[in-house]
Write a structure and sequence with these properties.
The N and C termini lie far apart (68 Å). The protein contains three helices and no strands. The protein is 61% helix and 0% strand. By secondary structure, the protein is an all-alpha fold. The model has no long low-confidence stretch (mean pLDDT 73).
Length: 92
């Protein structure tokens, strides 16, 4: 893994006028590190998102089964205190 250093973006050294204890210098360095990390991960994130969409978009677009919809409605009615959408108690 000696070649890993060559692929990582280099982080510039802090400016000479800023002290190590200076809050602004610390935030600036953290910001540069976050941008470097984000740019290094971006190609993989884009590839992963593309692959997941290719595999699961068709399935995610399918309608929910009636049994699952009934369970959701039943649970919503329980949470609503047994009332329907009009505020009146449901008839059995």
């Amino acid at each position: 893994m000696a070649h890993d250093d060559k692929r990582r973006p280099s982080i510039p050294a802090p400016k000479a006028g800023l002290k190590a204890g200076d809050g602004k210098a610390g935030r600036a360095i953290d910001s540069v590190r976050q941008r470097a990390k984000a740019s290094a991960e971006r190609p993989f994130d884009m590839w992963l998102q593309k692959q997941l969409h290719a595999m699961y978009d068709e399935i995610a677009g399918e309608p929910l089964p009636n049994d699952l919809l009934n369970l959701i409605d039943h649970d919503a009615a329980k949470a609503d205190g047994g009332k329907d959408g009009s505020g009146k108690p449901k008839k059995p």
